[in-house]
Amino acid sequence: MNDAHIPQTPPDESVHALGARLERTNELLVRMLAEVAKTPSTHAIFVDAGYVYAAAGLLVAGTEDRRSFDLDAEGLIEAFIDKARTIFADSRLLRVYWYDGARRRIHTPEQQSIAELPDVKVRLGNLNSNNQQKGVDSLIRSDLESLARHRAISDAALVGGDEDLVSAVEAAQGYGARVHLWGIEAAEGRNQAEPLLWEVDSRRTFDLDFCRPYVTRRPVTTYENEGEPPPSRDEVRFIGAQIAAAWLGERGRDAMAELLPGQPYLPGPVDQDLLIEAEKLLSRSLRGHAALRRALRDGFWQHLQGQY
User: Fold this and answer.
1) For residue 297, which of 72, 272, 199 has the smallest C-alpha distance?
2) Spatial distance between the Cα atoms of 136 and 239, rounded to a whole number of angstroms
3) Which of 254, 276, 291, 297 is 20 to 30 A from 239, comparing alpha carbons?
4) Is the pTM of the predicted complex or chain greater than 0.85?
5) Where are the alpha helices (DSSP H) in the chain?
6) Distance of alpha carbon 307 from alpha carbon 51, whole angstroms
7) CA–CA dist 173, 135 (Å, integer)
8) What is the distance between the alpha carbons of residues 264 and 253, in angstroms, rounded to a whole number?
9) Are strands 215-217 and 69-71 parallel, antiparallel or unpaired?
10) Cβ-count burial 160-172 (b if 16+ within 10 Å, e if not)
């Protein structure tokens, strides 16, 4: 083939075209970096409500039992938002995630009111027969990982203490998000797992003064009627069976099967529920009446055994 017939690009023209392309590429990069610079950082707050109730209740009211105190969840959430606004000064809030447990994942009235708050998302795990949360840690991990993977957040404030949250922290960090562990001052010892403390990017603890405005101890009701004789053991045993029937109807045979291996002992939360309900029905306090409390448990167990 004769090279004389192939059109040749003058050297100056080739260099000029390459320079134009480079200049265009630089312009696009500058514009992209400018857009990134204008995009605000975003943070979210992830609250393990079970941890908050237990830790704040123990610190302020001296008990982890939710029935013994009221928690101003709206005020506490607002305090968390204000604290995040100070810490992440150049960032905007995506939302607050509030993780709690409920039977059959049906909102309680309190959880419903929290869900209605602006910028708050309530996510529910289940409650087993012992009032223990199930599935909450996996919900936290799923949300943390998903938001980090989609670059929806740059920082996550995690309020919790369970070691099972370590995998959630690792997942979010793997996508470039920074995870900041927030905790509530422990009444004694620690209320956050050490592996979790090691894994996060920063730590912050809220003390008694911070928590006190949001926790109010409920007045103790004794149900005492002066001048009346105490109930008989048979009466209390019947009340125990009556409560067991209602308990079984609400929770089902699977929950009953979980209790049976521990007989004659009841898990603490179930035993407390039994005592409180019995005192309401009897209009009498059973505190300090060991024999009557044994009769109450006997009646509870006798009904369950009769249904097994």
Assistant:
1) 272
2) 34
3) 254
4) no
5) 11-38, 49-56, 73-87, 109-115, 136-149, 166-174, 194-199, 208-211, 233-251, 253-259, 268-282, 290-307
6) 35
7) 21
8) 18
9) antiparallel
10) bbbeebbbbbebb
CA dihedral sign, ordered 147, 153, 159, 162: positive
For the record, the structure tokens of 154 come out as 């740059």
Widest Cα–Cα separation across the chain: 125
List per-residue pLDDT tens for the chain, 308 residues long.
455 555 555 556 666 667 677 777 777 776 655 554 455 799 999 999 999 999 999 999 888 888 888 999 999 999 999 999 999 988 999 999 999 988 788 888 888 999 999 999 999 987 665 666 677 888 999 999 999 999 999 999 999 999 999 999 999 999 999 999 999 999 888 999 999 999 999 999 999 999 999 999 887 655 555 557 778 889 988 988 898 888 888 888 887 888 777 777 777 778 878 888 888 888 877 776 778 888 888 888 888 888 76
Tokens of 270: 């179930």
Helix then strand count (H, E) for the chain reads: 12, 9
- Establish how many alpha carbons lie within 13 A of residue 203's alpha carbon, considering only the half-sphere containing its beta carbon: 15
Kind of pairing between the strands at 91-102 and 41-48: parallel
